[in-house]
Amino acid sequence: MHLFDADGDAYLDMLSGLGVNSLGHCHPSIVSAIERQSRGLIHTSNLYWTQPAERLARELTRQSFADSVFFCNSGAEANEAAIKLARAHAFGRGSRSREIVVLERAFHGRTMGALSATPQEDKQAPFAPLVHGFKTAPHDDAAQLSALVTGDTCAVMIEPVQGEGGVFAVPDDVLVAAREACNEVGALLIFDEVQCGLGRTGSLFAYQQTPVVPDVVTLAKALGGGLPIGATLIAEQFAGALQPGFHGSTFGGNPVATAAALAALGEISKPETLADAREVGDYLMSRLESFGQLRGRGLMIGLELDEDYDARAIVNALLDKHRVLVNATGPHTLRFLPPLIATTDHVDELCLALARELES
Ligand SMILES: Cc1ncc(COP(=O)(O)O)c(C=O)c1O
After folding, report:
1. Does residue 27 surpass a pLDDT of 90?
2. Residue 243: is its pLDDT beyond 90?
3. Mean pLDDT, residues 284-299
4. With 90 as the cut, is the pLDDT of residue 46 above it?
5. 123 is catalytic
6. Catalytic residue status for 107
7. What is the tens place of the pLDDT at every residue in 221-233?
8. What CATH number belongs to 2-25+271-359?
9. For residue 107, how far is its CA from the centre of ligand 1 (angstroms)?
């Protein structure tokens, strides 16, 4: 739960390296998986099957709706693969549908495709022109989203709980409208669970707490236990759209990264880990209630402070004075992404520091 600076001082990590270190730092299962794998095989390229990649793919498909997995190295790349899959699926059907509907405040990454799916002016403007064909729907209006999905649409892409945009759970009726609209026109429903997946919201996948099942889920962050990996999970009927040679990644499915991921997934998917995440998440929510308006699910929590408070100054003060790590997703919004192994004592330590700082 702690990081140590050059002087040996401990910092309570309630941010998990931006949602990556969900099992804390240097979890023994991950350390030994990396040690073991790095003695046997470090890289082959994806021209060859390797056991850790195959095992990880089997485990991800066993635990989800998906039947196929594409491995890459980051969240943005997992989303690139999903975007390309959706367009290739339409192409394969002889359809001219190329549009992808995304939600306002979405964040899908910083490569050109993923950035084009990220309708935030400050992030997009320096890099225009972007990839064509992305349309933005309001995050909370089912009817408007349905109206944007037409015969020209090949996918709807949604973070079920938006992260970088300020921690907003997308309402169920919007998710249901997206599912129905996709079914109607034969478009893919893509859930970006790069941040909200893998136990973060208290279930292994965030979609498991919604009324819908997507066609594609993208993962990264917590998957590798700290090593870089991304994964695009795909339902059987769409997997054939990416023919060999359409897409690839030299490092994708790297044996060490997939061995670490297999260990991380094994720990995260334990019922007791998920139950703890829900329980400690509820406790954190209850402790934060008096500080401002709360959003989120499980251990993915946004706290909207009164406008008098400068969230970034508070983040810095928590770091410098209280040795607690959190971050800000907006001028007045604090974000908490504690490791899933956090206890109520860690929550108390955070809340005491926060109370002192807000008071001062
Ligand atoms: C929901 C979501 N999608 C995609 C990304 C991009 O992931 P990466 O930074 O690994 O490319 C992020 C990163 O914060 C994210 O939160």
Report:
1. yes
2. no
3. 97
4. no
5. no
6. yes
7. 999 999 999 999 9
8. 3.90.1150.10
9. 7
Closest CA to 303 of 331, 343, 280, 323: 331
For residue 177 the two structure tokens come to 């409208």
Place of tokens 């090949």: 154
Q: Which atom of ligand 1 is least distant from the CA of 111?
A: 11
With CA atoms as reference, report the closest residue to 83 among 222, 210, 247, 245.
247
Spatial distance between the Cα atoms of 82 and 155, rounded to a whole number of angstroms: 9
CB 100 within 8 A of CB 119: no
For residue 224, with 0-12 CB atoms within 10 Å meaning exposed, 13-18 middle and 19 or more buried, which class applies?
Answer: buried
Contact 98, 133 (CB under 8 A): yes
Pocket (CB within 6 angstroms of ligand 1): 74-76, 79, 107-109, 159, 163-164, 192, 194-195, 220
Tokens of 87: 């367009």
* Cα–Cα distance measured from residue 360 to residue 145, given in angstroms and rounded to the nearest whole number: 44
**Gap from CA of 290 to ligand 1 centroid (Å):** 30
Question: How far apart (Å, rounded) are the C-alpha atoms in residues 267 and 341?
Answer: 10
Q: 28-268: which CATH topology?
A: Aspartate Aminotransferase; domain 2 (3.40.640)
- pTM summary value: 0.97
Catalytic hit among 107, 134, 168, 238: 107
Active site residue 221: yes
C-beta of residue 324 within 8 angstroms of C-beta of residue 318: yes
Distance 123 CA to ligand 1 centre (A): 13
The residue ranges of DSSP E strands in 16-159, in sequence order, are 68-72, 99-103, 134-137, 153-158
Q: Which atom of ligand 1 is nearest to the CA of 230?
A: 10
Q: In which residue are the tokens 């021209």 written?
A: 47
Domain boundaries, the chain: 2-25+271-359, 28-268
Of 46, 52, 171, 192, the closest CA to residue 118 belongs to 192
Catalytic residue among 168, 221, 276, 336: 221
